[in-house]
Amino acid sequence: MKGVVVMLDVEKVRKDFPILGRTAGEYPLVYLDSANTSQKPQVVIDAIAEHYGQHNANVARAMHMLGAEATEAFEGARSGLAQFIGAERSEEVVFTKNASEALNLAANTLGASLKPGDEVVISVMEHHSNIVPWQLVCERTGATLRWFDITDEGRLDLEGAEREHLINERTKIVSLTSVSNVLGTHNPITDIARQAHEVGAAMVVDASQSVPHRVTDVSTLGADMVCFTGHKMCGPTGIGVLWGRHDLLEKLPPFLGGGEMIEVVEMARSTFAPPPYRFEAGTPPIAQAVGLGAAVDYLSGIGMAAIAQHEETMTAYALDKLTSIDGLVILGPTEAVDRGSAISFNLADVHPHDVMQVLDSRGIAIRGGHHCARPLHRRLGHQSSTRASSYLYTTTSEIDALADALVFTRNYFAPRFNQG
């Protein structure tokens, strides 16, 4: 029946991921670091192996059988991705080596026309990949970088931004994360994009923490560019994606120069290929694109709505377990409402690296540090944090193992919690 979401069979899903059968000494592997990188299903591993074993050749250049097969697979992956994110045409999908390169592409092309007096707006909750490129382009052009602050709950301070007229007639670009990789906060991208467009600004979205986890439709999102990465969505490393409105991409200058991004090269000047090839200089990540195409097929087969529902259940369960631990402080929203599955926290007076090391000794993989979001941690008054992040293969028993291990770690380093 239309509108009904089929529940995800997590035990069946787990059988698709060979690494989840590993043990760490006497403990089963508990992988709770998917916001960092996701694990890969066997179909993705097989797709990459088959490409190298049977179809390996360069794309576009080689006119022989293998070249045609490689090109067909590469462009097939592009078409599959376009459909996966709701793009109107495959030419709107540009392959990069990761989301960082995609965001640098956005900054260097959109930012080429910036001048003193212009403003770029980001937020304090951004990953470094959505801060540093805009800092660099503003330094080069004389434009001013401004940013959204956050509330104590870890959401964008929309009222403060309105009071300060953060988005105004000087704003030329707004670039925000759709979901914070630290706080899990979902940001109101469509509403902010509307504000940006009202003043003639372009809207860029870092969707690295949203595209892998829920249905994404760029045709209704309101963004002009959307960037994400393959390795967080069951695909291989070394492949990222920039989606852009085709009419916008046609107007932008190249990002890198080299083979295949050209139309005609003369010694005095060159003309450039149409999008997306204008932005894909040199030999692209061919096998990685094939692997990402297989990952998209895999996720689509399961259903993104089912994945989102499972993650919401896991996140609510994890928040309930973690908030019951005395001495544990969660960064960001403590309810599974408008938030993703990444949960960052600090435990008593235990350094996150110590927490990570103890949990690793018990087979639990998490992350400790500032998660490439140092300004956000400073804003929250924390040097760093520990982060647990679930995905489609996470189970409640793994969350239970995490909670038990955190209590053990807390009691070991802060025995006062054992008293009375």
TrEMBL record:
GO MF annotations in UniProt: cysteine desulfurase activity; pyridoxal phosphate binding
Entry's EC annotation: 2.8.1.7
Classification via Pfam families: Aminotran_5
SUPFAM superfamilies named among the record's database cross-references: PLP-dependent transferases
Reactions the enzyme catalyzes: (sulfur carrier)-H + L-cysteine = (sulfur carrier)-SH + L-alanine
Domain of life: Bacteria
CDD domains: SufS_like
GO biological process terms held by the UniProt record: cysteine metabolic process
Domain Aminotransferase class V: 30-402
Coiled coil spans: none
Enzyme class per UniProt: transferase
Cofactor entry: pyridoxal 5'-phosphate
The entry's keywords: Pyridoxal phosphate, Transferase
Family: Belongs to the class-V pyridoxal-phosphate-dependent aminotransferase family. Csd subfamily.
Name used for this protein in its record: cysteine desulfurase
Species classification: Bacteria, Bacillati, Actinomycetota, Actinomycetes, Propionibacteriales
